[in-house]
Specification:
By secondary structure, this protein is of the alpha/beta class. The chain folds into 2 domains: about 220 residues, Acetylglutamate kinase-like (Carbamate kinase); about 140 residues, VC0802-like (2-Layer Sandwich). The strands form 3 sheets. The chain has an 8-stranded mixed sheet, with helices on both faces. The protein has a 6-stranded antiparallel sheet with strand order 13-14-12-15-17-16. The chain is globular. The structure holds aspartic acid (ASP) and magnesium ion. The site of magnesium ion has 4 residues, from loops. Aspartic acid binds next to loops.
Length: about 450
Amino acid sequence: MIVAKFGGTSVSSKGSVLTLCNIVANELGRQPVVVVSALKGVTDLLLSLSTLPENKIEKKIREIRKIHKNLIVSLWNDKRLQSETFLYINSKLNEILQLIMKAEPGREFLDKLVSFGEIMSSYIITRALESKGMKAEQVISTDLIVTNNNFGSAEFLVESTKRKTQKILTPLVKTGVVPVVTGFIGATRSGQTTTLGRGGSDYTASIVGYCLKAEEIQIWTDVDGVFTADPRLVKNARSLPIVSFKEASELAAFGARVLHSRTIRPAISAGIPVRVLNTFNPKNHGTLIVEKSRASGKAKAVSFKRKIILVNIYSTEMLRQKGFLAKIFKVFANNNISIDLVSVSEVSVSVSVDDKKNLEMAVKELAEFSHVSVIEDMGMVSLIGEDITSSTKTIRRVFEILDKEKVLARMVSLSAANINISIVVESDKVEKAVKALHDKLLLK
Ligand code: ASP
Ligand code: MG
């Protein structure tokens, strides 16, 4: 059994839907379960409905209708299939209208509202697979994924989700039916619709794969997998054939937006390989994410963040003190500020944050017991690879390259987890540093 998840762009055009059908047809021998996102842009449109004045709602709904209608019309010549599918979409759009009329505003309402995106897309994809001669069945994941009440970013409950998922999906795949599961949505124990957070369809795929002990999870998207660097900045970046879960998580945290680490954790924890593939270039090897890849001490990828703020805290009070760091971190925590990097000496602490929000207040509080300076407009460059900090050669090369480019490291962090080297540099040096490190360390 495998799980194949198709993201928004992969279900939005005739070409990509036909590719999807081919991919599924080729995998029939491995009992595929399909998971789909909403059509591209639909989740945002649905969310926007919640804030519109009544007289603007009709127009937005027409927009959503048009996106689905265009796809339906382009997919098939069969008029009956077209009108049946369109009828379904229309009935859902009516339900949406009803919901908006009578619902109380709030997170519960929003989750119910956005869930329609995946409900509509999964119907179209089911019909598309059938039109290619496959047996397929739409499965609304409120019947599979049981979650807590954390609307908007719900967490799944392992045992009940496992039970329901196996009970519903196993008989389908065993009889040669391809389940087409809505991504992104679940339901509380009492049956209220929840969502798993933006981009949550990957999470759905991972949860379903975990519950069914799938042999592989495929995430079909619109890029060739996980890259050595952001290809928008680094033209010669290439996709990595294999990365470890830790590397993938680190890359996600440091700006590469392919997969969120939370979303693939269930799969990885069960030892299920996750493959990121490109619907628009299906022959590309993509990127395989596994629990552990062979550690080499080499850098695999470079990522970056702009708009980093460096906070330097200096105090002689710190000398041989106990609990001083706790005192500092408490200030950040109390002000709801998340810290990225930390570097400590006997009398000073530097931290980097990526959000100015609440910082002023925190600085005020810190200044009550230390000298504080804030340097804005910094950037962070991170090199990622298993065991990277255990290679003296890699570390030496990093600083040689920065030296050659005349980029000064304002703060350095070598993770003890051995997985990243992060360097804070002036914002306008980020690009130069990323390109140089990429070309000299990664292109070999
Ligand atoms: N449609 C949802 C979103 O846009 C979930 C997903 O695509 O993964 O966030
Ligand atoms: Mg998406």
